[in-house]
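User: Predict the structure for this protein chain, please.
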Amino acid sequence: MTSSRPSSSSTTTSLSATASLVDFSKYEGLGNDFILIDDRDKDAPSLTPEDSVSLCHRNFGIGGDGVIFALKAPTDDHDFTMRIYNSDGSEPEMCGNGIRCFAQFLKDLGADAESYRVNTLAGTIIPVMNDDGTITVDMGEPELIGANVPTTLESNFDGDSVVEQTMECNGKTWKVSAVSMGNPHAVIFVDDLENDIAFESDGPALESADVFPARTNVEFVQVMDETHLKMKVWERGAGPTLACGTGACALTIAAIRAGKIPGGNKVRVTLPGGDLFIEWNEETNKVYMTGPADFSFSGKAAVKELP
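Assistant: Here is the predicted structure, written as structure tokens:
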């Protein structure tokens, strides 16, 4: 293992009958940590979901919330493709912290640019490299129609959307707002993040509730003031993480639509790993996220079966 920046070559070599070696780089965005693989000469990931589960294991592998693959662009309209496998082997449509790590990885590989047009399962996402070292990502437009998030909760707001709709789960009554940023989010506002929820049981129960047919990310949110929100996240396929970029976007939109905060401001979202800054332009319906992405280390790792 080495702390040097990633090289532009990526290989997978044979180690034994039960394991192989893969070149990787490790990045984190506010503690949401990812294993990055340089597959820019490939159309599809070089590792399987099962391989990714092995690499993400924090005792038997590298450790991470997911594995991100830098792949060929499908058309001239894009620069690269990003695919992700979560630590449980599932594949999310998008990841806000992951796309910032992806952009920093590309820059460190030598594909230096002011911005990148990235093909994702959630559509085209455009990260912009800022002079201060942060990365601003055009996250596109949120999906607010409940059935498209998707959720089967009854629509109760403009445009067939779901805003603070009541549901029962884990023996409790919740008011849930449903937003998709290419991946589904259930946003719940509470008065006290530390005392109003049983995070380790409420999170997974809500993630897999029947009203979310594709499962969902779950954000518990406390309003600190008109431009400051604080949250805890239970991520679909990863569980508790230190940060979730798409979740920060979703909860900002939910807070504005529910009248918790006014629109038109840059909103500071405090996550367990630090702060992200979110802007929702209601005229264009575009969402912008700004935050860091940092290199941790690179090396070779054995891909092996878990016990």
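The longest strand covers residues 19-29.
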